[in-house]
Design a protein that fits this description.
Layout (H helix, E strand, L loop, with lengths): L7 E8 L5 E12 L4 E12 L10 E6 L9 E8 L2
Parallel strand pairs: 3-5
Antiparallel strand pairs: 1-2, 1-4, 2-3, 4-5
């Protein structure tokens, strides 16, 4: 299911309460040149999981796609590690 030019992110499923929807938390580290400091940020993404294969605590890979609903713009590509 790999497509050229689409963003792919890795994160942890924090909610699987909705049918076919997963809330994924993606963490990233970045360096602030002015302060010479590494900062951490996290963001939540709503991802479509057609077959409900992932559950809370799983590490998954998500890929950018067309808008599927008001908030969903990502789909679950695969489960990297089960919780």
């Amino acid at each position: 299911m790999e497509r050229v030019g689409r963003k792919i992110k890795t994160g942890i499923v924090i909610s699987d309460k909705s049918d076919k929807t997963r809330i994924v938390e993606v963490k990233r580290d970045f360096r602030v040149p002015m302060y010479e400091k590494v900062m951490k940020r996290r963001k939540k993404y709503y991802a479509h999981d057609e077959k409900n294969v992932s559950h809370a605590g799983d590490k998954i890979r998500i890929m950018e796609t067309r808008p599927l609903s008001k908030l969903k713009r990502w789909i679950v590509v695969d489960v990297i590690k089960k919780a």
